[in-house]
Amino acid sequence: MPDLPTLPAVAPPLRQLRQFDTCRLIPSRFADVEDSVLAPLADSDAELRDLFELDNATNARLLSEHGGAAGIGIDELLFAVPNYRIVNAAYTYARPEGSRFNDGERGAWYCGFAMETALAEVVFHKTVEYAEIDRFDDSVTYQAMLADFTAPFHDIRGLAEFAGCLDPASYVESQALAERLLAGGSTGILYPSVRHPGGTCLACFRPALVGNVRKGAAYRLTWQGAAEPTVEPIPIPHQNTQNQAGNAQ
């Protein structure tokens, strides 16, 4: 039996955060949510409608938006604000094994304070995927989604008692902390990036706190036989893609 996590009895301190232009990278194909990936598969509008109905029957985000998911209620999701579907997807499409501060039933909005941090996190996880199949041969485009936060979050930065939550190879202790804090009404966790030394990350537990979501820069990540990819910015016409990091307070 694996060892149970030994978390401190006292929760991490709360810190009032005011941070603008945080960076979250998502595959570009998911950034324009109005353009369905099903469209090229259909030969007619009628066939496309049939595909939509079949997809919607098992679509985790849509099930949640209609009150059908166990991990998050419809009352917590966003509606009728720019990019609300992208925000909702972060909470309804959890990986089965979970991530650092969420389980497999409820996701979180993960972001870095700097673009370099977001890129380092994505590069690490994609490289692990390719290493598992022993194939470093792919090219993927990512779209940065910027968001602003003004809210109190639990902060584990610089706290030795929560070092186990930053284990580079295990999420056991970090998920246990997240479960406890979430049950107590926590808004999320500030933590040092495990993949980008000196970087800062936020796992926001509440969709309503993900503010002013908009597109930032886009990048192409290319693996050509080696674990280290090349990272190239993709010009986006008529859009300000400069990331101006805000100040954490």
From TrEMBL:
InterPro entries: RES_dom. SMART domains: RES (SM00953). It holds the Pfam family RES. This is RES domain-containing protein. Residues 90-216 form the RES domain. It comes from Pseudoduganella plicata.
